[in-house]
Amino acid sequence: MLLPPAGLLVALGVWWLLTSVLTVVHPALLPPPGAVLSAFTATPARFLEHTGDTTVETVAGFALSTVCGVLIGLSLAVSPLLERMFTPLLVAVNAVPKIALGPLLVGALGWGQKPVLTMVFLLCFFPIVLSTATGLTSTPADLAELARSLDASRWQMFRKVRLPAALPQIFVGLKVAMPLAAIGAVIGEFQAGESGLGYLIVQASGVGDAAAAWVAIILIGLMSIMLYFALVLMERFALPWVRETTTRD
Predict the structure, then answer these.
(1) pLDDT tens digits, residue range 65-88?
(2) Which residues cross the membrane (predicted)?
(3) pTM of the prediction?
(4) Residue 224 parent element (H or E)
(5) Could you please report the per-residue DSSP string of 65-124?
């Protein structure tokens, strides 16, 4: 429990050393910690309001990606024909630089949350699809053979064997996608947002307020950490057997 705070203190110490003692980094690029703290304490309500907007967009886009990604992954897992037809297309969509789609999304969806949510979806749905399809097609052979020996139906096989065995892999995809959802929200706010931390960074950078921009950047990081560990906690409650049957040694 003490290691994360210790790591944070080390990072703050290095930051202070580089900006306040050695002054090897220009303040316009990275202000000292005190300046960033002062920028936050000057208008905390403003920063927290934008943090709330970004959090809502991140969670909403992630939830949409989870539902669609799991359903698409399930379809690919149960139908080899669909897997062969659409996997190349999914890979191509994932390979497209999402920031290049920003102007198109603004033109099609306008300003506001719609293009932001779409950017979140595009950025983080592929790991969920991949992990779901991989998990559902990687059922341990001994469990599958046991279910067949008990004359389990296809639905029983899916509900009691394939899905539980795939859940750890699905959560791996979710944990990969969660930070990507935050990145997608910020990218969307850069190009189409009317609020949020990404929008705040653009505003602060436009007037040369590096301290405010760094407050927003730090808040993005803190938000991502909290959402990620909320997902980890959810995994521990949903899959208690995983920790009991696996080891890191």
Answers:
(1) 999 999 999 999 888 888 888 888
(2) 59-82, 89-111, 117-144, 165-191, 211-233
(3) 0.88
(4) helix 210-238
(5) HHHHHHHHHHHHHH-HHHHHHHHHHHHHHHHS-GGGGHHHHHHHH-SSHHHHHHHHHHHH
